[in-house]
Amino acid sequence: MTNDNQQPTSAAPQNPARRTLIKALGVATAATAGGGLLPGCSAEKKNASRQNLAFAEIPHRLDHHHHLPDGYAADLLMRWGDPLDGFAGNFDPENLDAGEQARRFGYNNDFIAFMPLAPEAGPGEGDKHCQSRNSERGLLCVNHEYTQPHLMFAGYSEDSSIRGTSHPHIAVEQQACGHSVVEIENTAEGWQPVLGSPYNRRITLTTAMDIIGAAAGDQRLQTSEDPSGARVFGTVGNCAGGKTPWGTVLIAEEGFGGAFQGDPDNVADEVEARNHHAFGISPQNRNWGDYDLRFDIAVEPNEPNRFGWMVEYDPYDPGSRPRKLTALGRFEHEGFTLVSKPGQPIVAYGGDDDEHQFVYRFVSSGIYHPGDNRHNRELLTEGTLYAGQFREGGAGMWLPLVFGQGPLTEENGFRNQADVLIDCRRAAKLIGATPMDRPEDVETNPVNDCTYVMLTKNRKRAEGDENAANPRARNTAGHVLEIVPPGRSGERDHVSDSFRWNTFLLGGNPNAESPAERGAYGQQLPGTMSEHSWFANPDNVAFDQHGNMWIATDGCESFGFHDGLWAMATEGDLRAAPKHFFGCPEGAEICGPEFTPDGKTLFVSVQHPADTDNSTFDNPLHRWPDNDPAMPPRPSVLAIRRKDGGAVGS
Ligand code: FEO
Ligand code: CA
Ligand code: CA
Ligand code: CA
């Protein structure tokens, strides 16, 4: 099965005999059929990892602190409420209003992009900055995924905050989500923000944005406030994202449905009602619409269609207007990451983070020309979006989401390409894409040129509903797939509509009794993994300069230990054999991971610390990172360095 070189065909192969075999043999077969034991994506089998990942592994724990290997230090770089300008003064969470929040770092930091600053260039000169590899000074570009009033403000329980948040607090929340740009520099005292830098900026739910691409202006995007259907205020649910070689940042709109209240069943248009249901809009959602009518679908039934997109903006130009890119489709975007090869179209990979949703690929209509940024800046506005079909035997196909092709026709309720993009989930399901176990980051390893899909978990996958790429029913631990486009390492054809895939690893304890929960890793050498090396629920991923994979998790506490970072080789004897590098304080997940170009700093987001049952602002489980009785727990960005100045992980 693993050496099957058969080329994908246009029809999905159904092989009941093989299917029964996989089920009968359970998880071990799935891992063997997948890549855990495969030599790897690259033709080269260098074993660089043993020297590159030389840090002393940390143990699984669960306490109120963060943890690093010996020889490493973490600078506390930005916390919720830290000022972006020099005049804001100290943070006083008890007296926070919306105006004050708008000049401070937002809540629940998630994705991080480090955008280097070229010493000789200034604001508005992104063309110069984007060629820099400066690892000592740059822009920290950070998403703020969502807000939690019961941990931000006095007087709420988690339950009471859902429908009962006060108007002033909702106004603060709308300034605490979105995105921050902060100039940072590496000083003798470690990494620090540059207060009052002209680059410092907040993007919030009131920031004006354009909507561009094939769905822009469509009647389904028009509202009473915006009859053009091409302008919108703000962004929400900003989870992960990506960067472009022309110096812009991509930020994803993931769980936007939770911002909207109202009953989809009361929306007259059937297509729209189904659409709103698909994104979890319900009368039980947060009560923002009580005060800000556009978040009530009874008042503005089209407003949710203006969210769920990827947003592109230029961090080097603080006055630039962000753009929602409809060409990349509308769903619960985890992020989109690029493969940019000179003289070829831009290829971008992304996932829709929900149970049984899909992995996507975008191929630009235009060609990437390094240095011609006026041209490059339009590359993500026009192209073809595809959804992934992962077949048994390791073959895969990218299926185009194009109006008029296959079932994407008027008979099936699609009027035009705008409908295909707005209702991407329905379109992808109709064309036969493979329903996955919650796709999170999808990112390409720049060293071996293969693409990795983080699948965080899927408790809703019923027995009998497994497929080759999602082999476990009630998948609690998640897994990682490796996509291998045709060609050799460094020259792979990401534009090809066919690919090979394999299972890189299955999350979970490798010694778990239940086969459904048992992890499978690339342990080709005995003794390379300790009892602390396994993890579950892969979410974000980064690659270091050697091509090692750094996985950030979201969910390990349900297995009894902290979320954190695990690093591993993608090639050679130690392929898919993780080593535990970082641990979060209890209640937190970790997001971000982002290296400086020289590999000497690793930025991480610690999101929702102390977010456990009954933990509130008034009585939190702990107060990381300040441990100050006057401060609540605060989501924060850390800059991790090796004390001797070497590259992280080496
Ligand atoms: Fe916001 Fe997909 O995690
Ligand atoms: Ca998250
Ligand atoms: Ca995530
Ligand atoms: Ca997640």
Automatic annotation (TrEMBL):
**Disordered: annotated segments:** 613-650
Give the residues annotated as coiled coil. Answer: none
Its domain of life reads: Bacteria
Where composition is biased (Basic and acidic residues), the residues are 641-650
As given in the record, the signal peptide range reads: none
The record's Pfam families line, in alphabetical order, gives:
PhoX
Q: What is the protein name for this chain?
A: PhoX family phosphatase
Species source reads Microbulbifer bruguierae
Q: What is the lineage of its organism?
A: Bacteria, Pseudomonadati, Pseudomonadota, Gammaproteobacteria, Cellvibrionales
